[in-house]
Amino acid sequence: MIRSQTRGYDAIAKVIRIATDLQFLDLSDCALGSKGAKEIVSALGEHTNARLETVLLENDDFSEVHYDALKDTIANRLPCLQTLSLALNEDLEDNDAVASIAELLESQGGRLLLDDDTEDDLERNYLEEQREVEFVKHPVVPAVKAEDADVSELADLIPSTLKIKSDKPIE
Fold first, then answer.
1. pLDDT class for 91, splitting at 50, 70, 90?
2. Residue 164 falls within a domain, yes or no?
C-alpha cells in the first residue's frame, strides 16, 4: 500500500484557506522551502482575510520569486495587514518587490520588518495586548457609598490583588 504524503506546508495552507478569521499568523522558522513558500502565498491570496493583522514569515526560504506574489496578495487580499516580517529570508536587499511591499504596508499604516531583532518585541507586544484583553474581561465592582455600608462590606468588595498606595498614614 502506497500512502500519499502530505507535506507540512500543505496542511498549513489548507488551514489558512479555511480560517478566514485569522488575526496573527506566525510561520517563522518552518523551513518552508521554495514550494512551501509558494503554497503559503497562494493560500493567503485565495480569499480576502479582513482580520489578519500580523504575518511572521521569518527564515522560511522566501526569495525574490515569492515577493511579487506576496505583494499582490497584500494589495488585494489583506487590507488590515499591519505587520509583515520577512527577516532572515533571501534577496531582501535592493529588491523592488520588497520595496513595494514596504510602501504598500506603510500606506495601510503598517510596517515591513526585515531585521530579526524585532521578533522579541512583537512577541512581547502581543503578550501585553493579551493581558489587556484579559483585564477588560474582569467583572466591574459596583460603586458603593461608604455611608451605605460598613467597612467590612466594603473590604469584601475590594479584590485581594488591589494595592492602595498613599503618602498619608491610614488611621
1. confident
2. no
Bigger pLDDT: 10 vs 152: 10
CB atoms closer than 10 angstroms to residue 87: 19
Looking at the domain assignment, is residue 158 inside a domain?
A: no
Q: How far apart are the first and last CA of the chain?
A: 83
**pLDDT for residue 115:** 84
Q: Is residue 101 part of a domain?
A: yes
- Residues shown for the chain: 171
- How far apart CA 124 and CA 145 sit, in angstroms, is 40
Lowest mean pLDDT among 7-21, 67-81, 132-146: 132-146
> What is the spatial distance between Cα 44 and Cα 105, in angstroms, rounded to a whole number?
16
Q: What CATH number is given to the structural domain containing 32?
A: 3.80.10.10
Q: What is the number of domains present in the chain?
A: 1
Range of the domain at 62: 8-135
**pLDDT number for residue 143:** 56
In a domain, 144, yes or no: no
* pTM exceeding the 0.70 threshold for the entire prediction: no
